[in-house]
Amino acid sequence: MALLTADSLAAIDLWLAKFPADQRQSAVMPALTIAQEQNGGWLTNELMDEIADYLRMPKIQVYEVATFYSMYELKPVGRTKICVCTNISCMLCGSEQVVEHLESRLGIKMGQTTTDNAFTLKEVECLGACVGAPMFQIGPNYYEHLTVEKIDDILRQHGWQGAPQGGEA
Questions:
Q1: Mean pLDDT, the chain, integer
Q2: Is residue 125 part of a domain?
Q3: What's residue 163's pLDDT?
Q4: pTM score of the predicted model
């Protein structure tokens, strides 16, 4: 049974056209991203297997990519995934306080999702925005020079109602 939709396959084909025909595996990262978006923000083993077959590459190589990069999820995540950079520049500029504030506001710990499936907190390595530290990412958007007030405003923009949401691992 095909798990990738016709739209997803068409999007992968657009990426495949950018690479030599004998280098189909070069499209593995965009293919994983497309499949993850199609599946509500996470990848199943079956989806990764289908990508491997479609790109004519060993399944283990697809798994290696999906487990190496922090943008891929191997379990369900909330509708809003907050990727908090805790690497050196952000750490020196207050990422510990950012994490503490987010955990307090959302009622969850890093790596957890709120019980209403609205938010997931994820610790990530450097997101390449050191000049804007401390920072986090939601979807394609970077939020830099974070303060408690700024964080609360951003959370409200993403549906936070102002009370801890509670969570689960």
A1: 93
A2: yes
A3: 66
A4: 0.82
**74 domain residue, yes or no:** no
> Exposed e or buried b for every residue in 96-124, given b needs 16+ CB within 10 A?
eebbebbbebbebeeebbbeebbbbbbbb
Geometric angle at alpha carbon 34, from 41 and 7, rounded to 5° = 115
Q: Across the chain, where does the E strand assignment appear? A: 80-85, 113-114, 119-124, 136-138, 141-143, 167-168
Neighbouring CB atoms inside 10 A of 56's CB total: 9
Residue carrying the six token digits 């959302």: 106
Q: Cα(154)–Cα(115) distance, rounded to whole angstroms?
A: 20
Maximum distance among all Cα pairs of the chain, rounded to whole angstroms: 53
Cα(72)–Cα(29) distance, rounded to whole angstroms?
Answer: 9
The confidence band for 2, taking pLDDT boundaries of 50, 70 and 90, is confident
**What is the rounded distance in angstroms from the CA atom of residue 129 to the CA atom of residue 32?**
24
Q: Which of 68, 98, 113 is the last residue of a domain?
A: 68
